[in-house]
């Protein structure tokens, strides 16, 4: 493994999170190459100081570190171990930093397969959103061998404001992320329910936002998502489909362990209803639109949405 000055990193998945992470690495002066199916995202990374890769194997070729920022466990497995996969192209002893939200069982299985190829693996889901990814201020919830943390430290430090080392065993990071996602999904659903209830009561929604964000009922998700409702802007910063997936994983985990999760289950149904109403790819604050539609309420709309 090279020193920080000559460390070489590949990033697969240059969406709203991955592009910011790769750009943060480039800004630090470290070498980073990225691949995405969207050429515009690759071009943006190049403009930000990185280099382009033509395939997942090219992004991994001879790298010290590979960061995988795709949607789920299935995509992670495919880009790492599928035909033309990235894992086989990595430098021996390289570190895979896997950032997709997935079940702990999936994280452990991916780590075992990486170890079988002589690679290190960090189960490292992320939190913070696109803005914090772009500014290198993410929270990383990671678990894996101490040597993997040591080798990945220069990259982790420029991507994240907080890196939690949660244990030596892959799967612990995923477990912590599931607790976070349970709360995040419930808080978004609750915020949407509260704002549509305020609409039904005839309240000034801007005033509701002002009052609640200064009161005990506030949450990070209320403060972050309600502006989307007030602006009538449901372009996907984080899509409804993220929470149908993540709350679905949580539901499966609860069922497997015979553990009741009634509040998370209700939130999952709200996201599923929103997806079924045609808003699966829209912003997760669209739960408010779903509630408004079935109750006959009118929420703020942008000019584009009105058209």
Task: Provide structural commentary.
There is one protein chain. By secondary structure, the protein is α/β, with parallel strands linked by helices. Strand 8, helix 7 and strand 9 (160-165) form a beta-alpha-beta unit. The strands form two sheets. The protein has a six-stranded parallel β-sheet, with helices on both faces. The protein has helices spanning 18-27, 39-47, 56-60, 73-81, 104-116, 129-134, 146-159, 172-200, 205-212, 220-231, 240-256, 262-279, 287-295, 303-306; strands at 8-12, 31-35, 51-52, 65-68, 95-98, 120-123, 126-127, 138-142, 160-165. The chain contains 14 helices and nine strands. It is globular, with a radius of gyration of 20 Å. The protein folds into two domains: 4-169, NAD(P)-binding Rossmann-like Domain (Rossmann fold), CATH 3.40.50.720; 174-306, N-(1-d-carboxylethyl)-l-norvaline Dehydrogenase, domain 2, CATH 1.10.1040. Helices cover 53% and strands 12% of the residues.
Which consecutive residue ranges, at least 5 long each, have pLDDT under 50?
A: none
- The CATH architecture of the largest domain would be 3-Layer(aba) Sandwich
What name goes with the CATH superfamily of the largest domain?
A: NAD(P)-binding Rossmann-like Domain
CATH class of the largest domain: Alpha Beta
What multimeric state do the chains show? single chain
Distinct helical segment count:
14
* Proportion of strand residues: 5-15%
Side-by-side strand order of the widest sheet = 3-2-1-4-5-6
| CATH topology term of the largest domain | Rossmann fold
Helix content: 40-55%
**Backbone CA Rg:** 20 Å
Distance between the termini: 55 Å
The chain-level mean pLDDT equals: 95
Largest sheet entry:
6 strands, parallel
Shape from CA axes?
globular
User: How many structural domains does the protein architecture include?
Assistant: 2
